[in-house]
Amino acid sequence: MFRTIRHPHHQVRFRTFLYFSLLAGLFQTPSALAASYRDRLPQDEIVYFLLPDRFENGDPANDRGGLTGGRLVTGYDPTDAGFYHGGDLKGLRTQLDYIQRLGATAIWVGPIFKNKPVQGPPGQESAGYHGYWITDFTQVDPHLGTNADFTRLVDAAHARGLKVYMDIVVNHTADVIQYRDCPKGCPYRSRADYPYTRQGGPNGRPINPGFLGDQVQSEANFARLTSPNYAYQVYVPEAERHLKVPAWLNNAIYYHNRGNSTFAGESSTMGDFMGLDDLTTEHPRVVRGFIDIFGSWIDRFGIDGFRIDTERHVNPEFWRAFVPAMMARAKARGIPNFTIFGEVSSPVIDVAQQAEHTRTDGMPLVLDFSFRAAVLQALTGQGGSDGLDLLFKGDPLYQGGATATLAMPTFVSNHDLGRFAHFLRLALPQASDEEVLKRVTLAHAMLFGLRGVPVIYSGDEQGFAGNGDDRAAREDMFGSQVESYNATRLVGTDATTAQSSFNPQHPLYRAIATLAALRRDHAAVRRGRQIVRAMSDKPGLFAASRFDPVDGHEILIAFNTSTEPLLANVEVDARSAHFRSLAGTCPSAAAAPGSLALSIPPLSYVFCEAVASR
């Protein structure tokens, strides 16, 4: 059982023997783990997210994806943040031990499908290293390896009891379709101004006779949609006419072809995402096609879940057909707890928007961007911890209510919005390196202690800080050649990204591993009902109780987000009379029935477990 867990950056010390005993416990029975991983519920996972190109290079022979020429042909330039760097599936397989010793139980792998190597106008080119410019949905991108390499990766992960989640894209493909009457950056043209039944506007030549619009989503109706030239004159360059796989994706009739999305109104689901070809996901052929495509990945590889990119930019009817089909496919493959979560991106707390997609779209889970916003608010001095209370008050809005949110993936850093440490430094430029480390550690304590499934973004455990969003937060875990990455000061170390970053002694790696072990050993933290006990409109106390789903005993988790020591009485269940420390220092007994007196050092946390009196 746990003793008090002490960490050097929480004004207390690790018990080294305990730390390594906890880690060893993760691996004492690998065969048992492998036999039981299918049975784990989604809320019991700890997810590690990575972009394969930026993780580990296991085979330099595939760095150029089998292409010859310069970087504008091959996409490979390890010195440029916008190009391929050489990471691949073989490299990822060699680091499974590193991931598992961190405490992760599932790996979310960025898109691995074959991409258009390079896109962009002259002078603004970049590569598809991130995986979101797909041309072939049936095979692994040659820069990352082969389908056989993916098989070996999944099999190796499963042998360790690790699940594998694929990052998938339905909203768009690579940018192949062009418009004759508009260069790059074509503005969105609405259905009212450019109806499907006229070419170039209401007064244009009649086309698509009898088509009743995309709201009538029947085979018979879409059979009348034969011309894609209602908003723009569509064409595909000769060299790319057969680029996409499966072949049906090369037909422009299956795309909206209305110009760039403004990410508002109808354009949110019908506009091109930054110029990428936006699929007509209302079309029955497109629905069937993607059910076949991604069902095949389940059939062939036995993967354990999907993270869905740009989920909010696809019409709800598509998801209401797709999600049940994927669940049925997984069940037929012997995968009872297949996990699907959609990306509903927002930089602010917006519970209603996230919850809408679980109800309207039938999305089982969404990636909790609002959690990230609330933690950022609490720990950057921009506000108090009341944003967390606001977040959790919205849990009943989700389909399935607060119980469903126990399985919602939560995070503090990601590859699009940027790394937590970057925003800390922006908000608190005078903060010392020690203070930044404490705040980043505290953010991960919130990630692991509060409701939801923690997602660790690769590199956070090594103190990666980023220098902005998007590509500025996609550093290499293997030795990097990108000058801007190597010049960015990391958290908790004097090392730089110029050297390999797989150090299990990094203070953040150790802190996360300890939190992961705590979560693993206490069902109350993984899937226990949560009650917010205290919050503040300024830096200070946030506390919540988690209750064991079997016997109902309480674990009180409390955080001090201020730079001053905190003394506070916190409400607990009146039956919780005696406590032991799981992290930090907890009183051994309640001050009175229903009240626990806490003393928490600055920027620290405690996990206090109620125990039966002796």
Describe the structure.
The structure is a single chain. The chain is of the alpha/beta class and 614 residues long. Helix content is 28%, strand content 17%. The protein is built from 19 helices and 25 strands. Helix 12 (369-379) runs antiparallel to helix 13. The chain is globular. The chain starts with 15 loop residues before the first helix and ends with a strand.
Structural class from helices and strands? alpha/beta
Main beta-sheet strand count, sense and barrel state: 8 strands, parallel
DSSP summary, beta strand count = 25
Query: How confident overall, as mean pLDDT?
Result: 94
Strand order of the largest sheet: 16-15-14-7-2-1-18-17
Specify Rg, calculated over alpha carbons.
25 Å
Distance between the termini: 16 Å
Low-confidence stretches: 1-31
**Discrete helix count:** 19
Helix content: 25-40%
Could you tell me the strand content as a percent range? 15-25%
Defining key terms:
614 residues; alpha/beta; 5-stranded antiparallel β-sheet; 19 helices; disordered N terminus
Concise summary:
The protein is of the alpha/beta class and 614 residues long. Helix content is 28%, strand content 17%.
Layout of SSEs?
Layout: H1 16-25, H2 30-36, E1 47-50, H3 71-74, H4 89-94, H5 96-102, E2 106-109, E3 113-115, E4 118-119, E5 126-127, E6 134-140, H6 147-159, E7 163-169, E8 172-173, E9 178-179, E10 198-199, E11 205-206, H7 219-222, E12 234-235, H8 267-270, E13 277-278, H9 284-301, E14 305-309, H10 316-332, E15 339-342, H11 351-359, E16 365-366, H12 369-379, H13 386-393, H14 401-405, E17 409-410, H15 420-427, H16 433-449, E18 453-457, H17 483-487, H18 507-521, H19 523-527, E19 529-534, E20 541-547, E21 554-560, E22 566-571, E23 578-583, E24 595-600, E25 604-611
Parallel strand pairs: 1-2, 1-18, 2-7, 7-14, 14-15, 15-16, 17-18
Antiparallel strand pairs: 3-6, 4-5, 8-13, 9-12, 10-11, 19-20, 20-21, 21-25, 22-24, 23-25
